[in-house]
Amino acid sequence: MKRAMVIGSVGAGKSTLIRALLNEERPASKTQSLVFRDWLIDTPGEYCENPLQYRFLIATSFDTRLLVLVQDATRERSYFPPGFAGGFPVPSLGVVTKIDSPKADTAKAKRFLRQAMPKGDIFEVSSMTLEGIEELRERIESLVQPKGKSDRG
Predict the structure, then answer these.
(1) How confident is the model at residue 137 (pLDDT cuts 50, 70, 90)?
(2) Which of 102, 100, 81 is nearest to 7 (CA)?
(3) Does the chain have fewer CB atoms within 10 Å around its N or its C terminus?
(4) What is the pTM of this model?
(5) What domains, with CATH codes, occur in the chain?
(6) What is the reported pLDDT for 85?
(7) What digits encode the pLDDT tens for the residues 24-75?
(8) What is the 3-state secondary structure (H, E, C) of 137-152?
(9) With contact defined as beta carbons under 8 Å apart, do 23 and 137 qualify?
(10) d(C-alpha 73, C-alpha 24), whole Å
(11) Measured between alpha carbons, how far is residue 97 from residues 13, 15, 18, 63, 77 in Å?
(12) Are 9 and 30 in contact (CB under 8 A)?
């Protein structure tokens, strides 16, 4: 089965986002290595922050259908270099997380994502309030799952 690979910096909210997308109630925990979960792959933030680790992301992407770039709306910077998504053999979409935070700057987060991925949809979500989660889930599943199939219950 092909999956969507979720990439973002440490603390961007990747694991919490995946928990929300999979309707899990258990708390998210720090991802230490690649974690394959249903139709998603959770990646350690260090893989995004250290260019020497990009090779692991690129190698894993050959077993995916989609790249999901996650940008924390409360961050002052992005760890994605310009054109980052272009180095992968699959399409990408962006996700702005933590939109419910008083410190959220969604416009800045979208600019960061657009620099990293000139093409592709960008979704704004809150994994805590679940705002935007269902729309994002449907979009990812439509791109990852073969037509007429779903692994969700």
Answers:
(1) very high
(2) 81
(3) C
(4) 0.89
(5) 3-144 (3.40.50.300)
(6) 96
(7) 887 666 776 788 888 999 998 888 888 889 999 999 999 899 999 999 999 9
(8) HHHHHHHHCCCCCCCC
(9) no
(10) 23
(11) 7, 11, 11, 25, 14
(12) no
